[in-house]
Design goal:
The chain is α+β, with helices and mostly antiparallel strands and about 400 residues long. It has three domains: about 90 residues, Rossmann fold (3-Layer(aba) Sandwich), CATH 3.40.50; about 60 residues, ATP-grasp fold, A domain (Dna Ligase, domain 1, 2-Layer Sandwich); about 190 residues, 2-Layer Sandwich (D-amino Acid Aminotransferase, Chain A, domain 1), CATH 3.30.470.20. The chain is built from 13 helices and 17 strands. The strands form three sheets. Strands 9, 10, 11, 12, 13, 14, 15, 16 and 17 form a nine-stranded antiparallel beta sheet that branches. The chain has a four-stranded parallel beta sheet with strand order 3-2-1-4, sandwiched between helices. A four-stranded antiparallel beta sheet has the order 5-8-6-7, sandwiched between helices. A hairpin with a 5-residue loop joins strand 9 and strand 10. Helix 3 runs parallel beside helix 4 and helix 5 packs across helix 6. The longest helix has 17 residues. The termini are far apart.
Length: about 400
């Protein structure tokens, strides 16, 4: 039972799809699982979700929900029984549990070997560097002296990262000198976590390239998007990236396909990149649906959530083609006002063409609680509409 929670009720109903249609098990009950539920309903396949408790996003969405922790081998094994394939809405399931699932004969997609690269940044950097994929200069460090020697070659500032567990800007520090590096390296880390130093890249903008890949090797490549990060959290996505040259867009897509094939990723792969005058450099990987792809629900012929299901089931992939010249997605972050409903009604009335997605999460400052999407032709107007809606929902503005 999760700490502080009341005893969990029995799991949701054992909902079986129509005869002959498979059941996908998704470990993790967050908003990615919640949005995958909608895609599964439309496809007619079953989606069973392993959630930590009734307050998680997908649990509030209903359906076939099982209770348990992603790092509990007994809970995961029991959850997987009766599933035709198991996939994930996060990368935090321990490797021994992934290996046990695979050894039990249940297809795990992406597999343990692929997921290891999304779980550990050192493992990922070593693999893509060996494959000749462009990325910032990097090294494993254990001391301030190691960082200083790296900076002598590549310049200050540098970026320090923990190899495991960081997301949404956590576990990442930009340090300007030896003193700051020493303060960061003094931070406690979990056993098995390494320190990674990387070159600080003077990028033009941040990009994301997404590809769906099936076990049979079919790929579907989405338009390259521009992302905006605020305090390490993605706050805005524009699809396709405005002003991106055809050469850089093609290079980003080719990098994503190359990584998916080299690491044998099955499902959705999101590759976060830096765009520089010299070309694109890989920053991070995610082997699941990703925040940079939420725009695809309304903005693409086939959403990332549907193509993730198609890919892990080895179904023919859907078209990733954009439905409009421009689509803008802006995240809604929790503010000081927990009651979103009145604001939600106002936003809908003010802009009926805008789509609002709420995740059913309790509101906390800085927490992702939803997103808004709008598409059309005029980028400036679309950005203004999407940010106005997100700011109104957050409470930043009241008119």
């Amino acid at each position: 039972m999760p700490p502080g929670d009341t005893p969990l009720p029995p799991h949701g109903p054992d909902i079986r799809p129509a005869t002959g249609f498979p059941v996908v098990g998704m470990v993790g009950g967050g908003q990615l699982a919640r949005m995958t539920q909608e895609a599964a309903l439309a496809l007619g396949v079953g989606l069973r979700v392993l959630a930590g408790g009734p307050s998680e996003s997908a649990a509030r969405g209903g359906g076939d929900i099982r209770w348990g922790a992603h790092d509990d081998p007994v809970a995961v094994a029991e959850f997987a029984r009766g599933c035709d394939v198991v996939t994930f809405d996060h990368e935090h399931v321990p490797q021994p549990i992934l290996a046990a699932l695979a050894e039990s004969g249940i297809p795990v997609r992406p597999g343990p070997a692929a997921l290891a690269h999304a779980q550990d940044k050192v493992h990922m950097r070593a693999a893509i560097s060996a494959a000749g994929v462009p990325c910032p200069a990097w090294a494993v460090v254990t001391s301030v002296g190691d960082v200083s020697r790296f900076a002598e070659e590549h310049g200050w500032p540098v970026v320090l990262k923990v190899s495991r567990g960081g997301y949404d800007g956590r576990g990442v520090w930009v340090v300007a000198d030896v003193g700051q590096a020493g303060q960061v390296l003094a931070s406690p880390v979990s056993p098995g976590v390494q320190w990674l130093v990387e070159q600080h890249v003077p990028f033009t903008r941040e990009l994301a390239a997404q590809v769906a890949r099936s076990p049979s090797g079919q790929v579907a490549v989405y338009p390259v998007v521009r992302t905006v990060q605020t305090d390490g959290i993605c706050t805005e996505v524009v699809a396709p990236c405005p002003g991106l040259s055809d050469d850089h867009a093609l290079a980003a897509q080719q990098v994503a396909v190359r990584i998916a094939e080299h690491l044998d990723v099955v499902g959705m792969l999101a590759v976060e990149l830096f765009d520089t005058p010299e070309g694109v450099l890989v920053n991070e990987l995610a082997m699941r649906p990703h925040n940079s792809g939420h725009w695809t629900i309304e903005g693409a012929v086939t959403s990332q959530f549907e193509n993730h299901l198609r890919a892990v089931l080895d179904l023919p992939l859907g078209s990733p083609e954009a439905r409009a010249p421009v689509t803008v997605m802006v995240n809604v972050l929790g503010g000081e006002h927990p009651d979103l409903y009145a604001a939600y009604r106002h936003v809908m009335a003010r802009d009926p063409a805008l789509k609002v997605h709420m995740y059913g999460k309790d509101v906390r400052p800085g927490r992702k609680v939803g997103h808004v999407t709008v598409h059309g032709h005029d980028l400036a107007a679309l950005l203004a509409r999407a940010h106005h809606a997100a700011d109104y929902l957050t409470g930043v503005i009241d008119e």
